[in-house]
Amino acid sequence: MAQVSIQDSEIDIVIGAVQSDLTSFMEEWRPIFSRYHLIIVKDPDLKEELKVAGGFNVNVYTKSDIDRVVGSSSSTVLFSGYSCCYFGYLMSRKKYIISVDDDCSLAKDNKGDMIDIVSQHVSNLTTPATPFFFNTLYDPYRKGADFVRGYPFSLRNGVACALSCGLWLNLADYDAPTQALKPGHRNYRYVDAVLTVPARTMMPVSGVNIGFDRELVGPALLPALRLAAEGKFRWETVEDIWCGMCVKVVCDHMGIGVKSGLPYVWREERGDAVESLKKEWEGVKLMEEVVPFFQSLRLSKAAVSAEQCVVEMAAAVKERLGPVDPVFARAADAMVNWIKLWKVAGSQTAVA
Amino acid sequence: MAQVSIQDSEIDIVIGAVQSDLTSFMEEWRPIFSRYHLIIVKDPDLKEELKVAGGFNVNVYTKSDIDRVVGSSSSTVLFSGYSCCYFGYLMSRKKYIISVDDDCSLAKDNKGDMIDIVSQHVSNLTTPATPFFFNTLYDPYRKGADFVRGYPFSLRNGVACALSCGLWLNLADYDAPTQALKPGHRNYRYVDAVLTVPARTMMPVSGVNIGFDRELVGPALLPALRLAAEGKFRWETVEDIWCGMCVKVVCDHMGIGVKSGLPYVWREERGDAVESLKKEWEGVKLMEEVVPFFQSLRLSKAAVSAEQCVVEMAAAVKERLGPVDPVFARAADAMVNWIKLWKVAGSQTAVA
C-alpha cells in the first residue's frame, strides 16, 4: 500500500467559530489554508456578527443554515459551542477533512520551521496504519523509518488510516481539574513522532487538531455527549472524547487505523480553569463509565459501514449506559439522529 | 504511585560479550557504568581471551562458569552468541538489570547532551506504566507531561513498570532483509518520548538496549528460540523477540506494564547484511507463526508469578507451535529448563 497522491480539491478545512472575530486566526493560518476550501461554522449560540478575513475560498454556515438543514430547533443544540464544527463535517463533500480549533495558531518544529498541519495530517492519512503490531520506531512509513526486526512481513503492508490526531504545544489539552491544579503548566516538548494507536486500545481523541477520511469514517465523527454545564472552553467538554471512542471502535471493527502524534499546533490561553472547575465538571465522573463501555464494546459482523456501526453502538449505549445517567440516553438518541441527518443532508449537493 | 528512590546497589549492568576485546566499549561507557556493579558474560563460543578494562566493580563469567552452574554441556548452547547475557540475568541478585549490546556506544540527545541510559531506564521502571488507556502526550509521568483531557481518573495511578525498551540511533535494529535492502539506511531521528505499550498489544522487543525489574519478571527474560543458522549478528537472531513476547504476555496477564522509547544508544555497524541474508533468514517465516500465537495466548488465573506464567506458556508452545516446526518444540523445552535453572541457580548466593 503506497502513499497516494491527492489533490488540494479533495480537502476541506473545517473551523468551528466559537469566537466572533476570526480575522486574526485566518490571517495567521493564511500561508497554510489559502490553497484549500474552508468551511466555517458559527456557534449557533454566538450573538455577535461573525468576522472573517477576505481572500479565502470559504463557505460560512450560521444558525439559519443549521435550522434549515436540521429542520427542528431542538436538534440545533447538537451543534452549539465547540460542536458547531460537526455541522461542517456534515456539509463537506470532500474525501479529507482537517479541523482545528479557532484558538490555535501555527507551531514550529524542532528546527524552527513552521509546521504545515494540512500536509502532515494528509501524510498520516494517506500512508498505511499498522494497528495489529507495535513498531518501536513509530510510524514505519515516515521518511527515514522502517519496520524493526521481528515485525511480521505479512503485516507490513498495513491498512488504511482513517483518523489523524494532532497534538498541542504551549497549552496542552488538559481537563479543567488538571489545568486548575497546575495553572502555569505548559507543554514545550516537541515529540517528532507519529504512531498508530494499536487495535483495541482506547484513547482520548481531542477535537482541537484532527484530520480524517470523511468517506471512510465521516458518519462516526458525531456530536452526542453534551454535558449539562458545558461551556465555551475545551476543558469543559467531552463531546470530542466520546466521538473519538466511537471512531476508534469503528476503526477497530472495520480493520482500519488511527494515528496520533504530529502535527502540533500552538494553543493559546483562553478562560480560567479555576472558574471552570467550580462547575463540578461532570466529565470526571462520566469517563469512568464511558471508557469501560467502549473497551468492551464489540460490534456484529452485520455492521459493515460506519453508519451501521454507529447505529449499533447507539443501541448499546442506550441499553448499557442509559440506565446509569440520562446524559447517555440523550447521547444514544443524538447518535441515531445524526445518522439520519448524515443520510439526508450528506447526500444532497453542497449548500453554498 | 510515586517515583521510588533507588540505590545504585540495586542495579546490575549486564553485558554479553560476543567480541573478545571489551576495553574500548567499557572505556566509552565508564562515565555511566562506573557507579554500578557489572556482570560480563563471555559468549561460550568465543575462543579468544576476553579483555576487560580495569577499575570496574565487575563479575566476569565464562564457559566454565556456565558449565558449572548449568551442569550439562547440551544446555550451554542456550547461552551461546547474543544469548550469553541471559546467564548474567540468572546470576544477578539485584532488583533491576540494565543490559546493552557490546557494539553500542553513548548517544546524545537533541541538545547534544550525553544520554545516561541507566538513569533513563530506571526512571522508566520506577514510575508507573499506563497500559489500560493510551495517553496521547506519551508517558504522563515524565517531567512536564500529564494525563490529557478524557483520561479516566481511576486509571491515573497506573501500575508497576516491569520492562523498559530503549532505542537506537545510527544503525537501527532492523532484520537482515531490511538492512540488506537499504544498506546505507541510518536512523538519526531522536524521538523525545517514552510510552507505555498498551495491554494486549504485541511488540518486537529488541535485546540491544533494555532495562527490567528482575524481581517482577526476571524468569520471563529467557533464551528459548534459537534459529538453526543463527550467527553473531543481531539481525540473524530472534531470541530477544521471542523473549520479549513472553515478557509482554506475562505483564499483560499480571496487570503490569512495558514502556518503549527513551533511552537511545548509538549503534555501530558490524557485519554484512547481504552476507547474512544469504543464509535465508528463518526469522521471516517463523514470525508469521509466533505473532498470532502470542496475540491469542491467554494464561489461566492459576498462574500468579512469572515462573508459573512461563511454565504455562511453554506447554502452550509445545502443543500449538510444536507441530509447526521443531524449533518451537525445542523452545518449549528450553523454557521449562530455564525455569528449573532459575529456581536452582537463582536461589543460590552469587557466584563470584
Automatic annotation (TrEMBL), chains A, B:
Q: Name one GO biological process term.
A: cell wall organization
Q: Which InterPro entries match?
A: RGP_fam
User: Please, which domain of life does this record's source organism belong to?
Assistant: Eukaryota
This entry's Gene Ontology molecular function terms read: UDP-arabinopyranose mutase activity
Where is this gene product found?
Golgi apparatus
Which Gene Ontology cellular component annotation is one that this UniProt entry carries? Golgi apparatus
Identify its protein family. Answer: Belongs to the RGP family.
What is this protein's record name?
UDP-arabinopyranose mutase
Say which species the protein is native to: Actinidia chinensis var. chinensis (Chinese soft-hair kiwi)
Lineage runs: Eukaryota, Viridiplantae, Streptophyta, Embryophyta, Tracheophyta
